Amino acid sequence: MKNISLLAALVLFAACKEESKTREPITVNYPTTKKVDTVDNYFGTEVPDPYRWLEDDRSEETEAWVKKQNTVTFGYLEKIPFREDLKNRLEKLWNYEKVGSPFKEGDYTYYYKNNGLQNQYVVYRKKDNGEEEVFLDPNTFSEDGTTSLMGLSFTKDGSKAAYLISEGGSDWRKGIVMDTETMEIVEDTLVDIKFSGISWKGNEGFYYSSYDKPEGSELSAKTDQHKLYYHKLGTPQSEDKIIFGGTPEEKHRYVGGSVSEDQKYLFITASISTSGNKLFMMDLSKENPELVTILDDTDSDTYPIENEGSKLYLVTDRDAPNKKVVTVDASNPTPDNWKDLIPETENVLTAGTGGGYFFAEYMVDAISKVLQYDYDGNLIREVKLPGVGSAGGFGGKKEDKEFYFSFTNYNTPGSLYKYDVETGEYEQYWKPQIDFNPDDYESKQVFYNSKDGTKVPMIITYKKGTELNGKNPTILYGYGGFNVSLTPSFSIVNAVWMEQGGVYAVPNLRGGGEYGKKWHDAGTKLQKQNVFDDFIAAAEYLIDNKYTSKEYLAIRGGSNGGLLVGATMTQRPDLMQVALPAVGVMDMLRYHTFTAGAGWAYDYGTSEDNEEMFNYIKAYSPVHNVKEGTTYPATLVTTGDHDDRVVPAHSFKFAAELQEKQAGDQPTLIRIETNAGHGAGTPVSKTIEQYADIFGFTFYNMGYDELPNQAVLKEFKD
Questions:
Q1: Is 669 helix (H, G, I), strand (E, B) or coil?
Q2: How far apart are alpha carbons 351 and 315 in whole angstroms?
Q3: What b/e readout covers 660-673, taking b as 16+ CB neighbours within 10 angstroms?
Q4: Does residue 6 surpass a pLDDT of 50?
Q5: How far apart are the C-alpha atoms of 501 and 198, rounded to whole Å?
Q6: Which superkingdom (predicted)?
Q7: Which of 12, 128, 271, 416 has the least C-beta neighbours within 10 A?
Q8: From CA 697, how far away is CA 82, in angstroms rounded?
Q9: What is the Cα–Cα distance from 271 to 602, expressed in whole angstroms?
């Protein structure tokens, strides 16, 4: 056990303060974490795993460890003098009405809305010029708000709806069917649905996907054979028919099914990893439809977005790393018959349909550009967006004459616009009334060179008039994986950070999808180090250009971004003052043995692939690169005890390694949210508390005894 206290004599640079000040240290007495003699052998190399026992999420011993760690962590956080101020400001800023894009189902228009501080969004509806009424209120699903609505699907005529719920943030879902007119439950409850939507076939039933419940812990045991089922209303779930995935030949880790808007076809995707899929179809107009292969390899990401009779429209990156739209007839749908409709460009395409048109959204250096095409591939117009940022929601049903899109950027809260598909004109439908003035802030896109000379874009957002003196508290946020693109969007928590004079910087690292498949692949497997190098170079850019300095820099990321933070802080612990890894993939030698982790192998490879891959992964795996006698930044690891995507054992092991080996005085704590998962569906109340702790920990360990802009909080408090 180590007894570690913060150094008392820290030089403070808080606003309105000119002289240094000594503060009382916060003493941290870490719980003892026992070690076991578990050793794995990889290609002749023995690798100890002393904290293997923490992988057992059902053991009383692990539960006791979690409680002890939380006692220490919350004991520390409670002593931060401005923690409550941050919580109050987050709560006040969060407390404004939020509305999702309306959508038409049957005779009703539905929309999600939150009156401000509700733990979960409520689904409302109304008829034309009718009264608004509550359709589904997830806040009534559980007393503490931890049961969330995670999917809602309507029949084509809107008469029935099926919705999915998650309990405690788990990826395992339950399904419930309603009659939309009476709002009475028709069927309650389907269980064990996972990584799935619901797609209706007429009014008689629907398709969904799941795994067999694993032996052992349902939160951590491996699941790798996904199956597509058909559920017929009025029959027990035990009689649901397996449509695809039930045989050894059809074994895939991810299987999905979707019915075309005209109800003619069932399309089935099958993947062994998070990138690349096979594609099949069934003609539902036939009595006993056969499975027809469209694509029998996983060398591309290909999916249908529309059909007109037997003419199929597919989006694909096959022979087109930035994606394109192709057409093919269902009678002979294999790739050699595909014809380009919207060809590949130098920018990455995301395609949607609505009102009888295609909408092609392109990322131009991570900024949205939207073009409208007809079904023959003719360009109708470029949609002139409200500003520079991210647009979303361009799409709807074929008969829609108008639909709604959203627009946001890092300093502009998201607004909704009603779009006329024929004229291309739009008007603002809804604008948030938020206690935040976007005009006081600015975003700047810069390009910097990574270690190997690759040019990487980064958007830096901060209050206008910020002096570049190296003393600005800065959060560098990244992800860098799984073809995920980080495009500009507003965040309440980041607004609170920037109110306090904070800088928020987001680089578009390799491994993401901002520049297509080549950019993604450049951050995978034996090129994963590129992602960490890009992130390190972003930090160096911010320091070199006086946005911040080592003493005022925090790095943050979640999931794959948690891995990013863990790898960066172990490779360059000298670079930052604070590290904030959330729900991270930290044990890279064993990640593929938990839940659906093996499906991430496209990005990571696995330690079992070959000796070269093992050595490469071990060289950056955060758990295996915490070194005795090294001074690491102040670290707050965050995770949820019900995270069944990136199991919390990753974070448990990493925190244990840091607590044992930290040579400096900086705290290394772990905050474990109970009855919470990977993040989706987390109640607003828990989110506010979590970020008050994260920002409080960050500011305090940058040397602040009061917030940099305490006057702002006083102004809003008064």
A1: strand
A2: 7
A3: bebeeebbbbbbbb
A4: no
A5: 45
A6: Bacteria
A7: 128
A8: 10
A9: 11
> Rounded distance, CA 23 to CA 704, Å?
10
Beta bridge partners of 444: 460
676 residue type, one letter? A
Show Cβ contacts of residue 131 under 8 Å, excluding neighbours closer than 6 positions.
none
Residues 6 or more apart whose CB falls under 8 angstroms from that of 171 comprise: 194, 195, 595, 644, 645, 677, 678
What would the pLDDT profile of 573-590 be if each residue is shown by its tens digit? 999 999 999 999 999 999
Residue-level pLDDT at 2: 41
**How confident is the model at residue 217, as a pLDDT?**
63
Give the H or E element holding residue 289. none
Strand order in the sheet with 339-342: 302-308, 311-316, 324-329, 339-342
Closest residue by Cα to residue 567 from 611, 614, 519, 616:
616
Transcribe 485-535 into DSSP letters: -------HHHHHHHHTT-EEEEE--TTSSTT-HHHHHTTSGGGTHHHHHHH
Distance CA(471)–CA(552), nearest Å, equals: 6
> At CB < 8 A and 24+ separation, what contacts does 425-428 make?
426/383
Using DSSP, state whether 122 is helix, strand or coil.
Answer: strand
Spatial contact of 418 and 429, defined as CB atoms under 8 Å apart: yes
pLDDT band at 216 (very low <50, low <70, confident <90, very high): low
Active site positions, annotated: 559, 678
Asked whether the predicted pLDDT for residue 658 surpasses 60, the reply is: yes
| DSSP three-state, residue 323 | coil
Cis preceding-peptide flag for 189 (omega within 30 of 0) = yes
In the chain, the amino acid numbered 464 is K
Q: What is the dihedral of CA 183, 184, 190, 196, to 10 degrees?
A: -10
User: What type of residue is 414?
Assistant: G
| 628: Cα separation from own chain's centroid | 33
Cα 192 from chain centroid (whole Å): 22
Nearest to 688 by CA among 183, 120, 106, 90: 90
Average pLDDT of the chain, as a whole number = 92
Of 464, 603, 445, nearest to 538 by C-alpha is 445
Name the residue with tokens 């794959």: 560
Closest to 508 measured CA to CA, from 497, 495, 522, 494: 522
Q: Are 192 and 227 in contact (CB under 8 A)?
A: no
C-alpha dist (Å) from residue 667 to 630, 659, 663: 13, 8, 10
CA triplet 574, 578, 584: central angle to 5 degrees? 100
The whole-number pLDDT of residue 7 equals 31
- Within 299-342, strands assigned E span 302-308, 311-316, 324-329, 339-342
Bridge partners (DSSP) of residue 165 are 149, 174
CA separation for the pair 563, 567 (Å, rounded): 6
pLDDT in tens, 108-162: 999 999 999 998 999 999 998 889 999 999 999 988 888 889 999 999 999 999 9
Q: Which one-letter DSSP state was computed for residue 632?
A: P
Residue 627 CB neighbour total at 10 angstroms: 12
What DSSP letter does each residue of 136-203 carry, written as one string? E-GGGS-TTS-EEEEEEEE-TTSSEEEEEEEETT-SEEEEEEEETTTTEEEEEEEEEEES---EEETT
Q: Provide, rounded to the nearest whole percent, the portion of the chain with pLDDT above 90.
A: 83
133: Cβ contacts below 8 Å, ≥ 6 apart: 124, 125, 126
Where helices occur in 621-683 by DSSP H, the ranges are: 649-661
- The percent helix, strand, coil of the chain (3-state, each to 5) is 20, 35, 45
Contact yes or no for 279/303 (Cβ under 8 A): yes
Residue 555's Cβ-count burial label (10 Å; 0-12, 13-18, 19+) is buried
